Amino acid sequence: MSRMIIACDLDNTLLYSYKHKLPNDICVEFNNGKKQGFMSPNAYALLRDIIKKGFLLPVTTRSVEQYRRIQWPDGCDPQYALTTNGAILLKNSLIDDDWLIDSKNEVTPYLEEMTDLQSLLLAQDKYIRCRIVDNMYLFAYCRKGVNIEECRQEHLVRTSLTVMASGQKLYFFPPNISKGTAVRKIRCTLAAEKLICAGDSNIDISMLEQADLALVPSRYLAERLEGVNTKICEERTSFSEFILQTVLDLETEK
Strand 4-8 relative to strand 56-58: parallel, antiparallel, unpaired? Predict the structure, then answer.
């Protein structure tokens, strides 16, 4: 097993939606036949080297179905991936049963609360859609113009779930369903000596806090990681390319 894990968020970190597509970017994800996710040609090439040099571990809030839409470069499918905010571990694209059982045990006490909250949100006009993802956490998408932070604050006092916002998305996680918990657990399982983490949002903070080196796109996020060794992507530099090149450079320095 690799002595280094590269735990990396996906959306807006390793790959980007069509809204941010640049000329010559490579499509790596289709959704109902439509081009959805992209990587730059340079990042696409660097990813191949990363697979050879280290151990790439995608860590995402995506559902299993959404993760499986990604078309990795030939021979570059990650052996392991953490989906559903770390609640589900995929090993060679298959769900790890033991990991799933542990997650279900953590989530079961909160399922009724999530179901009730889902009904409450669906009855409000400010939410476009709301669903429970892989039976592990609750997700809601706010209408354009709705103040997402006000929505988050509103629900903080109503629920025992962890409430987090990203863009116009609102997430309700059972307390022990987090990227940080999952990464800490798999690092121990795989006996990795070094952990490099990369992410771009508040949801990634618990994961970034576990890192020997955290790679982030902004000083704002770095300042949230007190006591963590961080490296910040320079302005006008592709974050995905920065992540992959930094990892390769660190390996070369050894």
Answer: parallel
Task: Give the pair of three-digit tokens for residue 48.
Answer: 């191949």
What SS3 state is found at 183? Answer: helix
Sequence-separated (6 or more) residues with CB below 8 Å from residue 61: 84, 85, 133, 137, 139, 171, 203
The pLDDT of residue 1 is 44
Residue with tokens 């790439």: 56
DSSP letters, 141-178, are EEPTT--HHHHHHHHHTT-SSEEEEETTEEEEE-TT-S
Contact 14, 243 (CB under 8 A): yes
Which tens digits make up the pLDDT trace of 87-105? 999 999 999 999 999 999 9
- What residues of the chain score a pLDDT lower than 50? 1
CB 139 within 8 A of CB 87: no
Burial of 21 (0-12, 13-18, 19+ CB in 10 A): middle
What's the pLDDT tens digit per position in 186-199?
999 999 999 999 99
Q: What predicted TM-score, i.e. pTM, was given to this entire model? A: 0.95
Strands 127-133 and 94-95: unpaired
| Contact between residue 56 and residue 73 where contact means Cβ atoms under 8 Å apart | no
Mean pLDDT of the chain: 93
How far is the C-alpha of 145 from the C-alpha of 126, rounded, in Å? 9
